[in-house]
């Protein structure tokens, strides 16, 4: 009969004995001073990428060169630049310029700014970024969502039609604050703040914002003159259907034609990535074609509104227009903060995406400084908030851009436009600009990602929906705030209600795993083995106390099949407890006391470095880590204690 | 030479082979529907104690009885009540009454309310609690900190001397809101909100509040007439030394004598717990003695201020004084919220402390409902905010209280006082009340706990200091808000910067542990084994990406001593990753791609239930969990992959 007894699925006695002989001690980590502790913490918090590691052990001269290259990445790739790279960059630069010019004009109108400010913003910032930025694919310029937010927030205080100069001053000042805020985040190495915008939040937010932006285009697409100043879904649709008498069939016809043309070219480029240039040149082609049509048919006299006369010449200085005091200061800082964070998020995400594709690294904090400085310089040279735009960067990448020189080429092309070609835009119809914006923002509605999120994590999808509906029904900032709030709440809830699992032995091994997940894992008579799967801190000690005692209560009365007594030891596997605080240490002592009253022993398994250290330091907790109540693995604990149980 | 090769400290090949044979599969948890998922989540979040578990499988009649007992705990212990228990409860009840009467009068003055309101509040609420409460040791009545906050917040809007009726109305209304808020928290099972007040926060906050309360007593202790209405340390001390001409030596002398007497009795009771009654009756003895002294020497004519004439009779109804509209509503709700949370925290903490001593359970959410209802009833019967007071409950416990009947006895004693003994307090000097308050709040300064926190966790100590200084220098609510903010920030920081550790093999076993903590753990050539010690989510994916690639970079170039190639496999031990979201799944895929480019293989080890489930669901993540890239333990992974490495 004996051989049979060893196949009951429970760990075999001989196996136990063997392991007991090799039982290992849990040791606290080597002692470190409080100063070292704080130093390490600060280093991991603010310098997780260890930016100085390349400097170590280098001669002083080399350190200087590395330092300059760190501040000005252009010095890194500049010296090795050659004609072959230049050829690629020229092609890419011209391609994105053809996209940047109509988009610049359109986005400036979205922000209620004069169209030319959009072109100014595509001239200076790309030059600054080319010197300071570390991404090779980012195409810099104004972007739709930041333009939308900037315009809508400033319109709360000042009407762009009633007081255009003040509005312009506010726009440049908000840009300055956005840049200051971005650069400070990078400089103070607080870049991780943008990490709190999760992918789900962004997908929902972008989709909502894209719809809001598209709705705003109904003004130019339908030719409505008296359009609402509100942004909400309901208000815009009400306004649209209240002014049906203003709808202009000529405008609608023209809009539909160009919208179809742009969407078809977009579709072609999506299907055949090597035909990326089809959608890249389509906007400029539409602008040219529609302008010719207007001029040919004198359509401006038939209800089709056109841009009108545009100024000529390069960016005028605007530092004297920045306002650092007065009643609007609060609004300006808030606008700067929100547009700054949003445009930073887009810029960094775009940079990281393409860096991963070409496997180089972009340093988030360095990028923030680059984007921030670019906006500060921009605010002094008649530019509004700019960042790395997703659609244009994708075109830049597909067009074969090799370095930031493509930004310089684009900038030069915009310069030529500003100097010589501005009169050509006089008769460009607004309806085409609307169609260009709609086509651009449609790409922000990312249904495949939303579907993937739905499949993997329902809670993340809820966050997405909240961001989406919040943006549509409340406001752009409101939706964002709600989504971030829910995401953080989720993290806090996970901390407040950490998972506890009962572990069982996988027969024939000394591996112990969650009995819910591993159906073949079986309990060991006399033992209740629980694993706690979260840091233990003040926010969850009360819960853990109740939950662990409930586990004990539920299993206390259970008789094991052989009719032996119930549980005798409660093992807490602390492998997954990454940290503990004073409340957590008290919790363990409280549980020990509560178990003592029930005549059960508490055994801790594998407390990791920090946890072990704190248990060591707390006076009363010494009993927790004595002989027979602390083991390195569950297997060793069960083996050793089973022997003790038998012999007693 | 061969036997020597096996003692190099590295796992032995034969050992590997043996384990490979038993390699185990990682299985996803059994599939559950989204509904079950949500149900489980809701249950763990709101019903972690599974309050209905005693109801399961009971006949209907029994269920009814259990239900009534659940709502009215008095039905649970009432039927078994006997004379022996009553004797203990009478002794305890009389003891706490002797403490409650002088403290009630003093605390009401602290809240700028008529002294008699303090006695009213010691009459009705204890009766309500005796029926609804589940703690057997809680002594209910007004407490110092809630009185302080209530008074100081309401004084911002209304002066208690200029408009005493309005002030009283506001106090009762704030009490109503506090009760409503407390009961709602319990009813909605949101009790965990008070868990966010960590022990460190409370120790710092209590100490700061004790000093603020003591400073306020300088008015009566020094006999100052024109005292500041501010609460801050600086303002009070300025006011005290600006009015030195008002200091009255008779008052100071009397104050010092009684303060010494009270402190000595307190010291005696602390040293000899069986002499608890010495400090328990000292306040009443002081009141009686000082009143006799005043009457004997006609001291009220010699600069000693006395309470004055007090009303007689039981609590008048006050529901018609509750204000639910008007300009003060916002302040009332805020005051109710803050005093409600603070008094709840004290009441629940006290209840839990003594429940743990006598090993019974108090249900936090049920207690909240009891305390909340008690305050709602109180607000309609001329009582202000009450809760379980720490000092009185300790006396109650020491005096041998067995059930909530001791509260009923106390309440009856207060009733007798209200009906017949009020004229006796007419000549009680205010200075004695001040001395009673100072002696009571000194116990809130918990230096041993502060020292223990300093020893175990420096960051917790920082939270403590912030709460302490915030209360002293900013405001009571401000200090509390800062401390809670910092505590939550700490949790978020832990999430944003999770720990990663390199694991090594403990020679002669297949245990793998952190090489920093276990100095004898050695790396395995060809493998980089990392463990991630936190949930992976949007807030830390960027950090983890950078950090893991930095680990790889640092070890890539390392040659192992035998001159073999560098690392070949990167193992991520996910045992401690308690959850993952969509961003986390993307992170793992990104890391895989990045490692692919370096010609390294990514291997996952022991993803627990939820993580495995999500990896299974995500389309692109299937490659992550294929053969040879997913193992149940690090040991099995190393064994199996070593074989593969050798054979290739």
List keywords for this structure.
disordered N terminus; homodimer; 6-stranded mixed beta sheet; 27 helices; Transcription Regulator spoIIAA; two-stranded antiparallel sheet; 3 domains; mainly alpha; 648 residues
Describe the protein's architecture and organization.
The structure is a homodimer of 648-residue chains. Chain A is mainly alpha-helical. Helices cover 60% and strands 5% of the residues of chain A. Chain A folds into three domains: 2-31 and 498-647, Transcription Regulator spoIIAA (2-Layer Sandwich), CATH 3.30.750; 35-71, no CATH class; 77-491, no CATH class. In chain A, strands 4-3-5-6-7-8 form a six-stranded mixed sheet. In chain A, helix 6 crosses helix 15 (276-297), helix 6 (83-110) crosses helix 19 (405-421) and helix 10 (164-187) runs antiparallel to helix 17. The longest helix of chain A has 29 residues, at 329-357. Chains A and B meet through helix 3, helix 11, helix 21, helix 22 and helix 23 of A and helix 3, helix 11, helix 21, helix 22 and helix 23 of B.
In a few lines, what is going on in this structure?
Two copies of one chain form a homodimer. Chain A is mainly alpha-helical and 648 residues long.
DSSP strand (E) fraction of chain A? under 5%
Lateral arrangement of strands in the main beta sheet of chain A: 4-3-5-6-7-8
The portion of residues assigned to helices of chain A is 55-70%
Q: Termini distance of chain A?
A: 26 Å
Counted by DSSP, the helix tally of chain A is 27
Oligomer category: homodimer
């Amino acid at each position: 009969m004996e051989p049979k007894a060893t196949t009951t699925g429970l760990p075999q006695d001989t196996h136990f004995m063997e392991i007991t002989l090799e039982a290992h001690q849990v040791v606290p980590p080597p002692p470190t001073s409080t100063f070292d502790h704080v130093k390490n913490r600060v280093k991991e918090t603010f310098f997780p990428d260890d930016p100085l590691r390349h400097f170590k052990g280098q001669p002083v001269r080399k350190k200087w060169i590395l330092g300059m290259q760190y501040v000005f990445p252009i010095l890194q790739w500049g010296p090795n630049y050659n004609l072959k790279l230049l050829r690629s960059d020229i092609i890419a630069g011209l391609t994105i310029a053809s996209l940047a010019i109509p988009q610049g004009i359109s986005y400036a109108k979205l922000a209620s700014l004069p169209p030319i400010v959009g072109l100014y913003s595509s001239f200076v910032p790309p030059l600054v970024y080319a010197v300071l930025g570390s991404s090779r694919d980012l195409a810099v310029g104004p972007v739709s969502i930041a333009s939308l937010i900037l315009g809508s927030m400033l319109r709360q205080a000042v009407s762009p039609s009633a007081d255009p100069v003040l509005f312009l001053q506010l726009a440049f000042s908000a840009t300055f604050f956005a840049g200051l805020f971005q650069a400070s985040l990078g400089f103070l190495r607080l870049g991780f703040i943008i990490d709190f915008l999760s992918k789900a939040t962004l997908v929902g937010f972008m989709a909502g914002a894209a719809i809001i932006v598209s709705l705003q285009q109904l003004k130019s697409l339908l030719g409505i003159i008296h359009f609402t100043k509100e942004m909400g879904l309901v208000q815009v649709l009400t306004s649209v259907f209240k002014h049906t008498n203003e709808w202009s069939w000529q405008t609608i016809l023209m809009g539909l034609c160009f919208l179809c043309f742009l969407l078809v070219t977009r579709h072609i480029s999506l299907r055949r990535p090597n035909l990326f240039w089809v959608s890249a040149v389509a906007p400029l082609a539409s602008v040219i074609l529609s302008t010719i049509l207007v001029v040919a048919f004198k359509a401006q006299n038939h209800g089709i509104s056109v841009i009108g006369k545009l100024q000529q010449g390069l960016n005028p200085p605007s530092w004297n227009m920045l306002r650092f005091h007065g009643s609007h200061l609060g609004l300006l800082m808030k606008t700067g903060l929100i547009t700054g964070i949003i445009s930073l998020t887009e810029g960094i995400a775009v940079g990281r995406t393409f860096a991963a594709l070409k496997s180089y690294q972009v340093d988030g904090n360095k990028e923030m400084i680059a984007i921030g400085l670019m906006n500060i310089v921009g605010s002094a040279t008649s530019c509004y908030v700019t960042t790395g735009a997703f659609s244009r960067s994708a075109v830049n990448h597909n067009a074969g851009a090799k370095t930031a020189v493509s930004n310089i080429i684009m900038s030069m092309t915009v310069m030529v436009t500003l100097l010589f070609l501005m009169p050509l835009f006089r008769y460009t119809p607004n309806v085409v600009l609307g169609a260009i914006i709609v086509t651009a923002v449609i790409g922000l509605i990312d249904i495949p990602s939303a579907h993937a999120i739905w499949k993997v994590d329902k809670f993340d999808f809820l966050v997405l929906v909240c961001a989406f509906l919040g943006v549509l029904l409340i406001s752009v900032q409101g939706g964002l705030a709600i989504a971030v709030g829910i995401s953080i709440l989720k993290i806090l809830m996970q901390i407040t209600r950490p998972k506890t699992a009962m572990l069982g032995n996988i027969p024939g091994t000394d591996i112990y795993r969650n009995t819910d997940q591993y159906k073949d894992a079986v309990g060991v008579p006399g033992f209740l083995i629980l694993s706690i799967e979260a840091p233990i801190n003040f926010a969850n000690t009360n819960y853990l106390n109740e939950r662990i005692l409930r586990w004990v209560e539920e299993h206390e009365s259970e008789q094991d099949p052989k009719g032996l007594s119930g549980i005798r030891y409660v093992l807490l596997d602390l492998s997954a407890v990454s940290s503990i605080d004073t409340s957590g240490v008290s919790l363990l002592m409280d549980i020990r006391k509560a178990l003592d009253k029930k005549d059960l022993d508490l055994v801790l398994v594998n407390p990791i470095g920090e946890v072990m250290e704190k248990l060591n330091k707390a006076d009363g907790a010494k009993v927790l880590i004595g002989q027979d109540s602390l083991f390195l693995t569950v297997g060793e604990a069960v083996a050793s204690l089973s022997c003790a149980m038998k012999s007693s």
